[in-house]
Design brief:
Rossmann fold; 14 helices; about 325 residues; alpha/beta; eight-stranded mixed β-sheet; 2 domains; single chain; 8 strands; N-(1-d-carboxylethyl)-l-norvaline Dehydrogenase, domain 2; about 10% strand
C-alpha cells in the first residue's frame, strides 16, 4: 500500500459495508462505497445517510458512493462486503477492470460457496491470484459499529506484514483489531455461526427459555469446532473472537438477522414470510444449505446443522426439529 491514507473502497452498501466505511473514514481521505443502486448512491452523496440499512446515522463527509465498479480501480485497499453468492461474479468483474497487483483485498462476508464448499477468500484469490488477500471477522454488528460503540474484530491473512498493515487501518478508539494467521478458521467460524444463530432464534420463537438456548449455543460451539477443524481451521481460532465471540453475539442479539429469521420461523412463519419480514439478506439461510452439503463430505456429527437444514429446506416444523434435538440419546459432553 503506497499511501494508506488516500482511498479505500467498500464493495457493498448494506449495513456492514456502511459501518466499515465509517471505521475506515478515520484513516483515509476518501472512502468510496460501491452500490448496485443509483438511488442509494444518490442518497449517500446528497444526504450522507443510508436510511434503509442504518437509520438515523449521519455518515462522515469523506464517505462517497458510486454505482460503477470501475471506480475501484485506484483504491489502496478493497473490502468485499457483499452477499456471499455474489463474491465469485464480483471478483471476476474486478479482475477485468485491472486492479493493481499490490492492492490488498479483504473479505468481510461470512459464508462458503454452495456446491464447492469454497471459502470467500479462496474465491477472490482464484480471480485475482496476484493480489494479497485477507479476511475480517468477529462479533461486529454494524449498528453498534456505526454508533461508535466499543467493538473488537480480527483481521487475518497468510502474511504477518499484511495483517499488521490492516490492523493499523482498521483500528480506531472504539474499534480494536486483533490479528490471526488462521484464515480458514476465521472464515469457517463466521460462516458456521450463522446456522446456530437461526437455531437459537427458533428456540426463542417457540418459547424455550434461557437454559435451553444456552445449551443449544454451547453445543453449537462444540459442533462448530468439530466441523471447523475437519474443514481446515485451527482449534484455538474457534475459542476466539471470530469463533465463540461471533457465535454468542449473533445467537443473542436483536441485531442478528439470522436470529430474527429463526425467531420468525419458531413463531410459525414459513421461510419466505420470515425473509420478507426481515427485509434484508440473512446469510445463514443460503449458507445452511452450503454448510450442510460440506458437512456431508466429512464424518462429523452435525445434529444442529441438520435440524436447521430440515426446517429451512425439508419443511420440518421448527417445534419438531428442536424437540428432536433435545430428546437425542444422552452422551458425554466431550462428544
Amino acid at each position: 500500500m503506497s499511501s494508506p491514507s488516500t482511498k479505500a473502497v467498500i464493495l457493498g452498501s448494506g449495513s456492514w459495508g456502511t459501518g466499515l466505511a465509517i471505521v475506515l473514514s478515520h484513516h483515509f481521505k476518501e472512502v468510496l462505497i460501491i452500490s448496485r443502486s443509483e438511488q442509494q448512491a444518490a442518497e449517500i452523496n446528497a444526504s450522507h445517510t443510508n436510511q434503509h440499512y442504518l437509520p438515523n446515522i449521519t455518515l462522515p463527509e469523506n464517505i462517497r458512493c458510486s454505482h460503477q465498479l470501475s471506480d475501484a480501480s485506484d483504491a489502496e485497499v478493497i473490502l468485499f462486503v457483499i452477499p456471499t453468492s455474489a463474491t465469485r461474479e464480483t471478483s471476476i468483474k474486478l479482475a477485468e477492470i485491472g486492479i493493481p497487483a499490490h492492492t490488498p483485498l479483504v473479505s468481510c462476508s461470512k459464508g462458503i460457496e454452495r456446491g464447492t464448499g469454497t471459502r470467500m477468500s479462496a474465491i477472490i484469490s482464484e480471480a485475482l491470484p496476484n493480489n494479497p488477500i485477507a479476511v475480517l471477522s468477529g462479533p461486529n454488528h454494524a449498528e453498534e459499529v456505526a454508533e461508535n460503540l466499543a467493538t473488537c474484530t480480527v483481521v487475518g491473512s497468510n502474511s504477518e506484514a499484511l495483517t499488521a498493515t490492516l490492523q493499523d487501518i482498521f483500528t480506531t478508539a472504539n474499534f480494536r483489531t486483533y490479528t490471526s494467521l488462521d484464515v480458514a478458521g476465521m472464515e469457517l467460524g463466521g460462516a458456521l455461526k450463522n446456522v446456530f444463530a437461526i437455531a437459537a432464534g427458533i428456540a426463542a420463537g417457540i418459547g424455550l427459555g434461557d437454559n435451553a438456548i444456552a445449551a443449544l449455543v454451547t453445543r453449537g460451539l462444540a459442533e462448530m469446532t468439530r466441523l471447523g477443524i475437519a474443514l481446515g481451521g485451527q482449534p484455538d481460532t474457534f475459542m476466539g473472537l471470530s469463533g465463540v465471540g461471533d457465535l454468542m453475539t449473533t445467537c443473542y442479539s436483536p441485531h442478528s438477522r439470522n436470529n430474527r429469521v429463526g425467531k420468525a420461523l419458531g413463531q410459525g412463519l414459513n421461510l419466505e414470510q420470515a425473509c420478507k419480514q426481515l427485509g434484508m439478506v440473512a446469510e445463514g439461510v443460503p449458507n445452511t444449505l452450503s454448510i450442510y452439503e460440506a458437512a456431508k463430505e466429512t464424518n462429523i456429527d452435525t445434529p444442529i446443522i441438520n435440524a436447521v437444514y430440515e426446517v429451512l429446506y425439508k419443511n420440518k416444523s421448527a417445534t419438531q426439529a428442536l424437540q428432536e434435538l433435545l430428546t437425542r440419546n444422552p452422551k458425554a459432553e466431550s462428544c
